[in-house]
Design goal:
Structural class: alpha/beta
CATH topology of the largest domain: OB fold (Dihydrolipoamide Acetyltransferase, E2P)
Order of helices and strands: EEEEEHEEEEEEHHEHEHEHEHEH
Strand order of the largest sheet: 8-1-2-11-10-9
Shape: globular
Number of strands: 16
Number of domains: 2
Helix content: 25-40%
Distance between the termini: 42 Å
CATH class of the largest domain: Mainly Beta
CATH architecture of the largest domain: Beta Barrel
CATH superfamily of the largest domain: CheA-289, Domain 4
């Protein structure tokens, strides 16, 4: 499926899989989905969590099966009925999400994905897409996965062991990250490392606009306002690949270091970040790799 639908990096477009849960339509970035399967046998797991249905095997891989119906509506999925599953990869771990049915794949512009504005379940959405058939919610799967493994939260564990260095305090770091949960965790752990001069954005357009304003004010001395950008890939309005490409194509800003920090950096997709000129690409949640890259690019 994936090889036929990949878009070139930095085009400002994304392909989404539209699916149904309890009669409502949602979507996920195609790049986060390894495959779509019909759910077969699910074995109960040892985890006492109603959001987790159990374990299932796909081609000799055992995966956790997550119940999106319970997460979204507190209604447990009836496994006696035929269900579909999205096999997704987050942080190099494959997880299955059970859905009622698959509508299909659509191509949309990032600019057409609006920030959530208080709609139903908006806390679990990173964007709203208005279509002829109604509103689609682009779900924050990273928040869902992070909430499911809260006791094993990598960000909080790294925060507790992070060594703070005073020379990091003066560096001005911009962060573009649409997930409120990840944005907050990233802020906490970087502050613990000594990177306290942080400016956070929830979409690529706002981050790029702020960087352009700094360029207009300071020109080639733009590092008076910003020293480095950390950006996610999947964001409403403007994605991280497009942000990176525009910075690297700018005759002045191309010296600004850009780190792409995303769960979408798989072996298959690494070339996309290379094509738009990213200085580093770090797969979430590799905090050690992120801090090491910050140090390498800033000192």
């Amino acid at each position: 499926m994936k090889s036929s639908v990949l878009l070139e990096a930095g085009t400002g477009e994304v392909e989404i899989i539209v699916f149904i849960v309890n009669g409502n339509a949602y979507c996920i970035n195609v790049l986060k989905t390894r495959e779509i399967i019909r759910l077969s046998e699910v074995r109960p797991g040892a985890v006492d969590n109603k959001s987790i249905l159990g374990l299932a095997s796909v081609r000799d891989k055992v995966m956790t099966v997550v119940d999106l119906s319970y997460i979204l509506d507190k209604k447990q999925t009836d496994l006696s009925e035929s269900k579909m599953a999205l096999v997704c990869e987050f942080n190099r771990q494959e997880i299955m999400f059970v859905v009622d049915s698959i509508v299909g794949i659509q191509r949309v512009k990032w600019a057409d994905i609006a920030k959530p504005d208080g709609l139903l379940k908006a806390s679990l959405a990173v964007g709203n897409i208005l279509t002829d058939n109604g509103i689609l919610l682009l779900l924050d799967f990273e928040k869902i996965v992070t909430d499911l493994s809260d006791s094993e939260n990598v960000y909080l564990k790294k925060k507790a062991t992070m060594t703070s260095k005073t020379e990091r305090e003066g560096k001005k770091v911009f962060i573009a990250e649409d997930s409120k949960t990840i944005r907050s965790l990233l802020k906490e752990v970087l502050i613990a490392a000594g990177y306290i001069n942080l400016t956070l954005f929830d979409n690529g357009q706002d981050a790029l606009r702020a960087i352009y304003e700094i360029k207009e004010k300071h020109g080639a001395a733009f590092n008076k306002g910003v020293d480095l950008l950390i950006t996610d890939i999947e964001m409403p309005i403007l994605d991280g690949h497009t942000v990176t490409r525009r910075i690297k194509e700018d005759p002045i800003l191309n010296e600004l270091p850009v780190i792409i920090f995303s769960s979408l950096i798989t072996d298959d997709l690494f070339h996309k970040g290379e094509k738009v000129g990213a200085d580093r690409q770090i797969s979430k949640p590799s905090i050690d790799g992120l801090v090491a890259s910050l140090d390498e690019l800033l000192f």
